[in-house]
Structures are given as structure tokens and as C-alpha cells.
Amino acid sequence: MKKIAIICFDELLLSSVAGFVDAFKIANQLWIKDHHRARPLFSWTLASLDGKEIVASSGVTMKVDGKLPGSADIIFIPAWHFDGVKRLTQESERIASWCGSWISKQHRKNAIVAAGCSGSFILANTGLLRNKTITTSWWLNEYFRSFHPDVKLDSSQLILQDGRIFSAGPVNSHFNLAMKLIEKEAGHALALACAKTMLVDINRPSQVAYEIAPVQHKHSDEGVLLAQTWMSKNLQRSFDISEAAKAARMSPRTFIRHFKKAVGIPPVQYLQHLRIDLAKRLLETSDLTFDEIVSRVGYLNASSFRTLFKLETSLTPADYRKRFSR
């Protein structure tokens, strides 16, 4: 029987723990049903700092089984309720201070360590992510990179495995994470049966289709801000770097340098993101044909924009509309 230890702490997202446990409970039931007199495959322990109950972010008091156990085969770090980046980083450091060395010790003994959503910040503070690649929620991407620049991050992925380190994207992806762990420990057939029972789409590899463009620009370069506003208002026009630079009150060469420093990507790539985001919103909320949408976002070639759209969202425009339209 594989022993799962779930790290519990105040302000965690209750669904992140409950949904994860439910997946393994159902996996056990399906296994026993199909294997006469079989024992459950998984057991789990809810562990807190002092072995006492914790209060979830919803205000619900949750009992735990005790302190950290002697050993574990799988360790799960659930999501913490996001209440500002300062608190997230402080709490992540505090939680890692009491469980980090234990997690590292178990990992050295071949335990799997998995983190969901904002749990990646706690995982980063254990010191286990050196030369590892992980994912986290797409909307935590910038925060994670700024506080843990030495960790390789691929937030386009919903679930990512690097050796015995597993990570998951936004909150509900803990279901997909559970399916991945069930598959690793008990095979694809059981994971698929469990996914069907729980209505979990295990063929959902990417989270990029769910990304929402940020409303605010997180920098203070006034010239670049002026250019970003100009670009947003002139999406339908053919892009000319000299006009964008003029809006920023800079020479083209200076503008490109300032833009990349402030935004992190070149102006042309940023413009592509704006056009993709507008296309997504039009697919979600309008009955416009794809050719009409292509015109609205300022692209000349529908075929090339369709290719770009799929590259950026992992879905064709038609599939995106089916999934997200009203």
C-alpha cells in the first residue's frame, strides 16, 4: 500500500485537499471492485505542524491525523489561498520551515513530492527544485519567476513531471495531478476508470487556453505604457514599429530596448498576445466568423493566424469556441 502524506496548514484551499483525497478513495474502490479480496492501494495521512486541526481559507475547521508521519511514498503540498504576493511568499517560507527538511529527507528515500497551484511556492522553499522544471498556475507565473528565478518554470503545462517531482497548474488541476499519480503507481487503466468516474479530462495537457491577459502593466516605464495603450487601440492597423516608437516618444531602437526590458518580450510578440486575447474574447462572446475575427484583430492571413492561435492556446479556433463560448 502506498502511503500518502498531505501537508496541511491554515488558509489552504479545502477543495485542494478534499478533491485530491476523493480521487484516491475512488481509485481504491475501483481497484477492490475489479480485484477480488484485494487490499486498497493507497492510504493517506493529513499532517499539520503540531498535529492539531487547521482552519481552511473558507473558514472551515479541518481535523488532521497528526504530525508528520515517519515515512511516506507520496507527499502532496496543496494550494494556499492567494491573498497577495507578500503573504504568499511569507507563508510559503514559514510552512517550508517546519516541513521542508522532512520532505527533502523523504524525497531522498525515493518518495514522490507533488505540489498543486500555489503549493509550488512551498515546494520551491524545500530546496528540491535545483535543476528541475515545474509548472504552477498561469496567473502566478510572474510572481514565481521573480521570487525563484533559478527554478525552471513552464506554466504552459497543466501537469509536469520531472523525475520524482510532480507539479500542477490552477486549483482544480489537483484532480489531473491525482490521476497522473494513480497512473504512475497503478497503471493507465485504473487512472482512466477513475477519471471517467469523476469526469476528469486527463487529455488536457495545457493551461494556456485558460489564460486571461493582465489588465494592468506591471512596470513604470511611462513611454512603454503609452506605446502599449496605442497598440491596444490600433490592433486593426498594420503594425509599424516606428509608429509605436513615436507613441512612446522614443527612437525605434531605444523603444525596442525599453519595451523588452519593461515587458519582458519584444513589441511584436506582445502585439501577437494582444491579438490572440482579442480573438479569444470574440470567439467567446460573438457570432462573428473566423475570417471576420481575423480582420478585427488586424491579421491579413486567416490561415497563418489560425496556426498562431493553435500554437498559443493549444486549441483550434473552432475547438476554443466550442469550449468557452456562451
Can you walk through the features of this model?
By secondary structure, the chain is an alpha/beta fold. 49% of the residues lie in helices and 11% in strands. The protein has helices spanning 14-34, 85-108, 119-124, 141-147, 174-186, 188-198, 222-233, 241-248, 252-263, 267-285, 290-296, 302-313, 317-324; strands at 2-7, 42-47, 54-55, 61-62, 74-77, 112-116, 133-134, 152-153, 159-162, 165-168. The strands form three sheets. A six-stranded mixed beta sheet has the order 2-1-5-6-10-9, with helices on both faces. It has a two-stranded antiparallel sheet with strand order 3-4. Strand 1, helix 1 and strand 2 form a beta-alpha-beta unit. Helix 1 runs parallel beside helix 5 and helix 5 (174-186) packs antiparallel against helix 6 (188-198). It is globular and about 70 Å long. The chain starts with a strand and ends with a helix. The model has no long low-confidence stretch (mean pLDDT 93).
Please describe the topology of this protein:
Layout (H helix, E strand, L loop, with lengths): L1 E6 L6 H21 L7 E6 L6 E2 L5 E2 L11 E4 L7 H24 L3 E5 L2 H6 L8 E2 L6 H7 L4 E2 L5 E4 L2 E4 L5 H13 L1 H11 L23 H12 L7 H8 L3 H12 L3 H19 L4 H7 L5 H12 L3 H8 L2
Parallel strand pairs: 1-2, 1-5, 5-6, 6-10, 7-8
Antiparallel strand pairs: 3-4, 9-10
Helix pairs in contact: 1-5, 1-6, 5-6, 7-8, 8-9
Task: Give a summary of the structure in a few sentences.
The protein is an alpha/beta fold. It has helices spanning 14-34, 85-108, 119-124, 141-147, 174-186, 188-198, 222-233, 241-248, 252-263, 267-285, 290-296, 302-313, 317-324; strands at residues 2-7, 42-47, 54-55, 61-62, 74-77, 112-116, 133-134, 152-153, 159-162, 165-168. 49% of the residues lie in helices and 11% in strands.
